[in-house]
Specification:
It contains eight helices and nine strands. It is of the alpha/beta class. It has one domain: 3-Layer(aba) Sandwich (UDP-N-acetylmuramoyl-L-alanine:D-glutamate ligase), CATH 3.40.1190. A nine-stranded mixed sheet has the order 3-2-1-4-5-6-7-8-9. Helix 7 packs across helix 8. The longest helix has 17 residues. It is globular. The chain starts with 5 loop residues before the first strand and ends in a 26-residue tail after the last helix. The relative contact order is 0.16.
Amino acid sequence: MTKARIALTIAGSDSGGGAGIQADLKTFAALGVYGASAITAVTAQDTRRVYGFTELRPDFVAAQIDAVMGDMGADAVKIGMLASAPIIEAVAERLKHWGVTNLVIDPVMVAKGGDTLLREDAVDALKQRLMPLALVLTPNLPEAEALVGRSLTTWEDIKTAAEEMSSWGVANVVIKGGHSEGPTATDLLYDGHGFREFSAPRIDTQNTHGTGCTFASAIAATLAKNDTVPNAIAAAKAYVTLALQNSYAIGEGHSPVHHFYRYWRPHLNEG
């Protein structure tokens, strides 16, 4: 019997279903990987904003990780919202304990509506304790700016920032191009030796909720299948582009991407 590939997401819950563990589990399922989860925080949010969140106890986050890893294991792990330094410490300790190597970190710091999802005192813990364990780090442009502590206005600025993040022990840094301007969205990969670009047409849509979570989870799902980092990034880029292209409106704010566009589309269910 062929062993199922398993990916674990360690992230916050989005009550609106478009981001966080909900987006991660949808992505894993869409890409043919079994998804497990360890919840770090529970948010009250919709397509418009985050109204608040409650962190889980660090020891209970650790217990969830141990439950999954001790029973079924994980071929890849994706990390999203961590909320606080104590949770980061607990997660880093358990990932070391279980010897996780296929680790993708999406440094969730601010929600789509501008609400803070990572406490200020947790940034140093993220950089010092967790990032050295990462195989892939996937900041968007604002997150990259927050991590290096300066604005990134040119392509050379972005390259320098990627090199700096690599120096923290991250094996592969992908700075996403979704917040840039122009007809093409280009993500930049730095693998510690050189740069590589991944480009796709920019999709003109407001349905962008959960794109960062989905991108990182798609990378993790592909890594769980024993593929390479460049192939995982290329596959994730293609998947997110089509999920944006086939998205549909939910709610009054930024609607989510359509994770299951390959299997159903809203207009096919009409009538």
